[in-house]
Amino acid sequence: MLKFQFIKFSPLFPSKPSFFPLSSRLKSHMASYSSSSSNLLFRQLFEKESSTYTYLLADASHADKPALLIDPVDRTVDRDLSLIQELGLKLVYALNTHVHADHVTGTGLIKSKVPDVKSVISKASGATADVYVQQGDKIRFGDLYLEVRATPGHTLGCLTYVTGDGPDQPQPRRAFTGDTLLIRGCGRTDFQGGSSENLYKSVHSQIFTLPKDTLLYPAHDYKGFSVTTVGEEMQYNPRLTKDEETFKNIMANLNLSYPKMIDVAVPANMVCGIQSKTS
Ligand SMILES: N[C@@H](CCC(=O)N[C@@H](CSS)C(=O)NCC(=O)O)C(=O)O
Ligand SMILES: [Fe+2]
């Protein structure tokens, strides 16, 4: 099994040099130019049975058009792979934000259909994958990357993936929050090593510290919303705008029924759906 260092120090997809000897005026012009001519190809995809969002990201300017999927669902793998083929992308990574309790991840199925794809999850999740990531790691695809932020609370191993910072990276930034932060809500904390204290700290230290215009994309939405921003959630999130004690009280009294598929989904997702024999 590969360790994450493989990606972290891999010269496969080196970044562009980030230093250019330009005047500060020209630099600021370049920064705004780069924001409107991003290399990032981005698609938000939806699986309606579990109200799950899957995200497709690719570096469309790179020769190979390397791509990754965040939180694919087994039921929609064929749709996602058809889209990837149609757009001429090369799928390199299939990432999970955490061990899902409400649906079976598509990661294993993807690996059985496209064997070169590497599955990615946090070491803290305890799940099987090809590549384990942790706080501060970078997952590179072409000239772009996702920065890994550990955001435990909904589960012990929850991650938020944030698009790269810097003049050659697309702006505004996007953060894929899994179930840590939902639009005007957050993930429940009553199973899988959940902790309302940890979730509160994760959101305030790892998500609300991002620039206010950062676009936030959750793993689920049950009300028809698709995207929010850091600034919007800091102002309007009915749970996370409260002080920590009030938040913990809200979370202790959600009274949600367990996800219908939890007994099937968690054991399956601990081995990333289905793993190939070689991984
Ligand atoms: N009814 C759904 C499960 C709904 C649910 O529990 N969602 C989770 C995220 S999936 S683990 C959650 O954290 N919800 C928080 C909330 O406030 O709704 C099913 O049966 O699958
Ligand atoms: Fe979840």
UniProtKB/TrEMBL annotation:
<feature type="domain" description="Metallo-beta-lactamase">
    <location>
        <begin position="51"/>
        <end position="220"/>
    </location>
</feature>
<protein>
    <recommendedName>
        <fullName>persulfide dioxygenase</fullName>
        <ecNumber>1.13.11.18</ecNumber>
    </recommendedName>
</protein>
<dbReference type="InterPro" id="IPR001279">
    <property type="entry name" value="Metallo-B-lactamas"/>
</dbReference>
<keyword id="KW-0809">Transit peptide</keyword>
<dbReference type="InterPro" id="IPR036866">
    <property type="entry name" value="RibonucZ/Hydroxyglut_hydro"/>
</dbReference>
<keyword id="KW-0007">Acetylation</keyword>
<dbReference type="InterPro" id="IPR051682">
    <property type="entry name" value="Mito_Persulfide_Diox"/>
</dbReference>
<keyword id="KW-0479">Metal-binding</keyword>
<dbReference type="Pfam" id="PF00753">
    <property type="entry name" value="Lactamase_B"/>
</dbReference>
<dbReference type="GO" id="GO:0006749">
    <property type="term" value="P:glutathione metabolic process"/>
</dbReference>
<keyword id="KW-0560">Oxidoreductase</keyword>
<keyword id="KW-0408">Iron</keyword>
<comment type="similarity">
    <text>Belongs to the metallo-beta-lactamase superfamily. Glyoxalase II family.</text>
</comment>
<dbReference type="GO" id="GO:0070813">
    <property type="term" value="P:hydrogen sulfide metabolic process"/>
</dbReference>
<dbReference type="InterPro" id="IPR044528">
    <property type="entry name" value="POD-like_MBL-fold"/>
</dbReference>
<dbReference type="GO" id="GO:0005739">
    <property type="term" value="C:mitochondrion"/>
</dbReference>
<dbReference type="GO" id="GO:0046872">
    <property type="term" value="F:metal ion binding"/>
</dbReference>
<dbReference type="GO" id="GO:0050313">
    <property type="term" value="F:sulfur dioxygenase activity"/>
</dbReference>
<keyword id="KW-0496">Mitochondrion</keyword>
<keyword id="KW-0223">Dioxygenase</keyword>
